[in-house]
Specification:
Largest sheet: 9 strands, mixed
Bound molecules: flavin-adenine dinucleotide
Number of strands: 29
Radius of gyration: 26 Å
CATH architecture of the largest domain: 3-Layer(aba) Sandwich
Amino acid sequence: MTHQTTAGEMTTIKRYPAEIIKFFQDNYPEYPQYSEQLLEFQQSLFDNAAPHTLLAIAHIGNQCSLEIACLEYVRRTYYPEQSIHMVLLGSGHLSLKLEAEFELLPPRLQQVLDDLNSIQWVDILGCQRLKFDDGKLLLDRYAHESTNDFIELCKLSATKIDGWQLSPDVNISEINAEFVQLMASSCQPYANIFLPNQTDKTLLQSRYLQFMTGNSINENSTSTHLQNADIESSIAIIGGGLASVNLALSLAERGKPIEFFCKDNSVAQGASGNKQGGLYPLLTPENDLLSQYFQQAFLFCRQRISSLHQQGFSIAHDFCGVVQSGHEERSTARLQKIVNGNDWPQQILQSISADKANEISGVSIDKDSLYYPLAGWVCPADFARAALNKASVLTEVNTHFNTQIVKLEQTPQGWILHSDNQSYGPYQKVINASGYGLTGFEQTRHLPASLFRGQVSHIPSNNELSKLKTVICAHGYLTPSHNQHHCLGASYIKGAENIHYSELEQQQNKQRMEESYPDREWVNSIDVSEQDARVGVRLVTRDHFPMLGLAPNFEAIQQLEAEQPFKRKQQVADYWQNMPLPVFNGLYILGALGSRGLCSGPLAAEALAAVLCNELPPVSPTLFEKVNPNRLWKRKLIKGRPLN
Ligand SMILES: Cc1cc2nc3c(=O)[nH]c(=O)nc-3n(C[C@H](O)[C@H](O)[C@H](O)COP(=O)(O)OP(=O)(O)OC[C@H]3O[C@@H](n4cnc5c(N)ncnc54)[C@H](O)[C@@H]3O)c2cc1C
């Protein structure tokens, strides 16, 4: 077996390292050829792929440790410029005990195992995405209940799978014809299937080949979200907060050159500039798509922060947990409904007694509470700086600070960005991720989102407050001490765009703590008199989903509305249900992150980057419809209500 290195020499890859082979022999004695066959399959994947591309491999089965470890070892050793996107359909259970058997592993293999051993899958619905080695290894795990999300994605996406891999625990008689058809229609013409059992392979392959000659279901793709074209030219991003820098990082991990426009002299001067923000998922009793999105986003964000931090980027944070309690009857009942509404994974949410809440938080909460054990706080400003710095290490990021974009002009050559005294472009792709500035352009001014001003108070730590070990939230939130100060937040004032200090809001921040935790000594010790605070403006949607996708063309939609021929309710509904609403090609929206942007922003950015680069995104098409910036208009039209 030969392999051409980037330097052009031919290398022979004969076998995995002895340590891996021994693991195969010990664990799969019934498949003596397993390691050779797997290596052959993996080699063929790399040989078939164009250089510097992302190889998409779908793995079916609960056992996947060895398969991922081997593939990643081969990639890092022989194809370091290649990237792998591995989709795990199954429990994704990783049990890599290789290091226990060998005292010294080859360093590259050890690195792979360290990465994989750090994985903490959580049984959430939908996709859990993890990234390693600067995004060159991308793992998407769909637990059993969520396989349909992946099927839906394959059906609508133009992106093809390069190979299917089944682990020894898979019973192929349980793979139905519909799924085999999906396997065949969603993959590249050269894609192969790998199974350790050769009899199974012959059986499955004959069924699979029948479908390979059939029509590809992908050709009927209609989703405007998942459409894409030219991906080589520079992508222009307007922003400076968490949305934009996370997009820059996700694109940089894919090697895309970026032009970055920010009206301030550095990043994180807007809503993302706080010293500490709570990072925890927004859950609902029904665990609906909003709640599912937030869990996926929470886990993604957490891994991104940890990974940047481990690489030496300074991000003040502490995943110390969040303790949430009600502050009056209604909110207490709501939290109770959330806890009881679902069998939440322990890592996401636990119901704890009043005593436990006191013990975990370190202060007297004295109420039954909700506990988010993996949650905590992070300094969003540090996070934003780290993400952009890392992006600049990975790709060419051309930053234009002190550059407020005031106008977007669509020309046949692409989009031109205008500041007061200069023009930039044309760009084939422009992403408007400008926080509450999102609606500041002619094309986006109608977007249905509202401004909410917020003031976070910075209060000095003291004997009482320094006991706080977790973020606590009720009506408002309080963070553990960082640099001898705590963040106490936050006011929520509709419409206000000014960012002046408000004494009233400073006092109200304290009052909210007093209402939430009445007569506690530690609350009395909260001192807001230093008048130290930071004000920002959030852009909020009514349904709390972020906005992500092509910018809708409101005027063109109105035109369609005027021409809509039907009167009967059902006909109107059917008409709009199937009608793709007009968009501004090449202009994308990323934002409206509301009050939980720390949590929701990074995954939204990652999903958009995946779409821009023609990859399978970590978000299902149904979820994409939920975040589509046109969704509220579409809903109105379907219900037969006027847009204005
Ligand atoms: C007071 C307060 C407390 C919060 N607390 C939390 C919390 O505890 N947990 C949590 O998860 N979330 C919290 N949030 C929400 C979170 O901070 C936001 O959702 C998130 O930071 C928004 O990021 P963004 O990138 O969309 O916007 P921003 O951070 O506002 O970034 C927008 C950027 O765009 C730039 N820009 C705007 N217009 C233009 C233009 N025309 N040309 C060039 N550049 C432009 C601005 O300079 C700015 O840097 C809080 C928000 C506020 C205001």
